[in-house]
Amino acid sequence: MKAVILLSLGIDPVSGRPAPVPGEIRAIGLARALGATQMIGLHAGSARSVLAEYGGYGLTQIVCLKGGETDPVQALADAVKGNSLFADGAPDLVLAASRGRGGSDMGLLPYQLAQALGWPIATDIVAPLEEPTAVGELLLAQSRARGAVKPVSVMLPCVITVPDTARCVPAFVFALQRTTQMDEQTVTVHSAPTDEGVGDNGMLRPYRRRPKLISGASKDSGGGQLMVDPEPHEAARAIVTHLRALGVLPDPDQAPEA
Amino acid sequence: MLGRTGLLAAGLVWGAAGALAVSAVPAVRRWRKGRRNPKDMIRGLATVPRRYMVDVHHAVQRRKGAAPMHALVAGGTLAGSVVLAAGVVPALRASRLYWSGAGMFFLAALGGTYLVWKRRNPKKPSYLSGGKFLWLPNAMLAWNLGGALVALVHVTLPEQNSIALVPLVLMAAGGAGLVVQVARGPMRHAFSGVTWLAAHSRPERFGGGRSTDLRPLDLAAPTLGTLIPGDFAWNILASFDACIECGRCEQHCPAFAAGQRLNPKALIQGLALSARGENASAYTGSPAPNAPPTAGQGSMTSAIIGVDAMIHPDTLWACTTCRSCVEQCPMMIEHVDAIVDLRRGQTLMLGEVRPGAADALRRLRDTGESGGRPLSARADGLASENVPVLTQDGETDVLLWLGDGAYELRYARTLRALVKLLRLASVNFAILGEAELDCGDLARRLGDEATFQDLATEVIGTLNSRRFHRIVTADPHALNVLKNEYPVLGGKWEVLHHTTLLDELVSSGRLKLDARDLPAVAYHDPCYLGRYNGEFDAPRRLLAAACKTTVEMEWHGRQSMCCGGGGGNPVSDVDAELRIPDIRMGQASEVGAAIVAVGCPGCTAMLEGVPEPRPEVKDIAELVLEAVVPA
Amino acid sequence: MNAIRLRRDPRAERAARLVPGNGRLRYDMSATPYERMTSPSGRLRRDPRAERQRLLTTGRDGRARLVRSGLVGQMTGISTASARTVKKIRVEKPEFFIVVVPDLPDGRLDRADRQLLGAARKLADGGEGAIVVVGAAVDAPSLGQAGADRILPLADGSDPDARVAELVAVMEALSPRHVLIPESEEGADLARRLAARTRLGLLPGIEVLGPKQAIRPCGAGRQEWAGGLAPLMTLAPDRVPAWQGEEHEILPLEKTPVPSGPVQARMRVGAIRSPDPATMNLGDAPFVVAAGRGVTDFESFRATVKALHATPGASRVVCDNGDMPRATQVGASGTILDALCYVAMGIAGAPQHLQGLGRVEHVVAVNTDLHAAMVSRAGLAIIADAQAVMPVLCEILAAEYGEKRP
What we know:
heterotrimer, A: 258 residues, Rossmann fold, seven-stranded parallel beta sheet, 6 helices, C: 406 residues, alpha/beta, 3 domains, six-stranded parallel beta sheet, Electron transfer flavoprotein subunit alpha/FixB family protein (chain C), ETF_a/b_N (chain C), electron transport (chain C)
């Protein structure tokens, strides 16, 4: 299987220094877990040194589409469809981070690329599911809150996005980074048609932290109920009642969880 | 043949010497498969007697009875044999004085042989190895007893010296045994040891010097660090063969004591066995505690680390780089260098680091801080003290390097105490503020030389753009990197530990202390201050001036035991039976200490992590501040 | 010299003596402002639990609030007393539509859905707009209370692309001014699919929403974008309050969308699979029961964890002793939790351990030490021997659930 990993110029949220995007690092790991035999990193824009760090995570080849930043979706779609990336045919998979880090961070580009390619897109994928599936289909685990997963079966070729929480982090190998080949190709794209409705009417400014709403049921940080030296039975009863009130223990008459 | 036994004896010695010389050839050939590392062997060999009699002797004599044993058995055997060898001169053979001299030497060697035998009998201590060691005294006995009897015959019955043929046979058997011990057994240590002492990788250590800095790696080299024995320099390969398995490293290793899958002796032996292509079963000492089994087979060109190789990966990450083993080793073997070389291979070439360490290294690469915390938050704990930040335009006397301990509430308390003291002594000081990055200590000890060099380059650039007279830090790890490891990369400044500066302020009268009547205080030497930087006295002087009752733990000073916080150990998810800081606190309680004085954020965090009841942990700066008399 | 000098803060002491009441300031002068506690080395220890308790009150919207100004009594509920009007608001001739696509987990509006409707109300009430809720059938009264004006039922499919096609049909029929979707797992995906499909502008993860302006974070959360509204918007959780006004009446929708043709099925999303609590990743576990030094019988502990259907955790000391595997260690050097509820059995709560509680919402502590840090962090603190409580807890659970639970 041949996989293309979309790479972007990320920054670290805390320090603001250039850093690889966590989801993109994990996309490399997921591609490997899905059995990709060939992998190419693809970046819409000029080659930058921060991209080389992805090499340490296992990308031996990175292609940068110089001039593609004006319409990344078209530039990337052309590159993926153009069959010029791999010697032996079109890629089967395009993997991307669920969210970028450092740009608009909308997470929209993979969807637009899937739309442009006419491919299905499976999102928030953390691992392959080891279950039988039809030929030409992938069975994937979609990450959901609190460790739950949803099985997603998707036809190949497809776009897959990987969240920051996936555990498929490949090892960083400095020796690999040294040998990574970074190619820059100049591409011409027509200027992007701006999405209807969002003009350049906005402005960027430093983030202002605003308080979130707190609910009555949210985080207790002390000041709760206190029982000093109760009888064990009384204590156990209080725990059960409390846990039921929080909803972590079902009522006794309710059907039990599987 | 009659009357010629004297010449025969001399011939026997020459023959044995020849056999020994031949037996060295395979060893030399093997070492030459290691990395090239030209050494001036003539000059090196010339220094060996002094290095042996002074430096090696200092280390040997720390174990009771070891020095006399060596003097008797090695000195006696060598001297007796040399005298016998001189017997090729006919005039000597005719002299009774000559024979009685030889006899005396062999008698001394016999005494030594008894001491050698006694070490493992009636019961072999756990730190010593068995195997070929068990019949070594027999070979020594045969050679030396034979030699003594030959001499006796020549002294007492020179006319009927053919009787000496019997002890000569005994001597020949012993000689054969000794040749086997040197060629294929642990006594290869004799020849390898001389070679290693002559071609040591840190010659600065001899004559009481110190050399503890890790050496920079050429990041463009085809192989980074060590994967196979052939990646080690030839003299390092010789150093592994120089190990005589005395077990001093094992007795002092904090990781071994805590059951952390590392035994420095087993590690060095594993490396030596790998290079020789022997099986792990040839090692007869205690293994690395709880280490899972490996294939136990190696060669000069196959991987050292791995479940299917010689040494289990867990062993590598259990080391705290405290240098206790290096300090103890009578053969001056550089265990920590070997471990860091192996870690470099694992990290840089294979990316095989522990998950916790991989996360820390990723954060260091991406944020310049091992915890991924904002650089602007480092000085938050000092907010109440209003410490000035040194800009490119400013100037200060003392630049205070905070280190990553500053992020912790507990250590910020220490730093506040230090800042208050500096104010009381009217020291002009400042911090770097947001411009302070991680110094790279953690990355380097974990073998990530690439990240270390990136960080170091940036830090050196920052520091070179600021005007100050000296750097003071309360973090000995940062001290070590800034003071010892940055100079070769282009950063040279005067760097002091805060205890050194405080000691200077107290002795110059700028701070006046009134010793307080506290319960007994014991000082815990941080490895990176003591063993790495030789600062043992300043903290003790300060402590004596600040507290009335001080006690010493059994292991202190150069022999101090690590807190378990160094070498990336805390981020490497190390499996253990006990925790190193628990053991250390136990040692403090044993001598009745109610307070343990520390001088390192790592030690503070590790020792305070010990469950109560335990002695209280206080930084020296805190104790000094409490004892300050307002001027 | 003593480095710590005690300083009185008369203002804080006064505030600490304040008695919560309805509207009038009352002080209990007999109350001690602080229980002074000292560590062995003589450092003062705060009692954050007691301090917080003193500041806690209930706001007019019924939510818990911390009042640090000292005026506790003046902030308490007023709205509860006001009489409820029976008349519902009707939006009969809307000028425009706002389409809201809530998540409706288990077929009910959740917190984020209600906030979404609150945000939609802000936009709709800027003019004469009507809110159309598109989703599975929900009972009209609860939707009306949340601020909705119309309901448009939607088929529930396993293919997200089919869902998008249905929404496209709805948008073609209604030409809504805005479509609002929660920035939740499902909502985020849906909104982006919709944006890619329709090429309409999308503003995801909005944190501040007004009639004219939206603000959303970008640039790795170090920057924010502020600008005009977009046709498609998703709302970050807990940013815009739910609708607190009068109930709206659900009226029939004026237009009905033309059902879209069948979509070529290229992917299927199956039913959610919950992990086994006993073996799941500790960092993801919703309910963790952990043992500390106060637990000596680990058979009993394991039985309790199993009976509670929870994920086992442990303190560092317990892992060091080998009583629980290293993977169960909670804390700075172990796993950082993201649980809904954490039950600490015999854990005092060293700072390193408390760091591991990260985003845990509710803590139950069973501990013999009243002054343990864990007790002050807990919503339910029981000062008792965990060893004695655990078997009784098992008995109660066994009696109530019998064979029904594994």
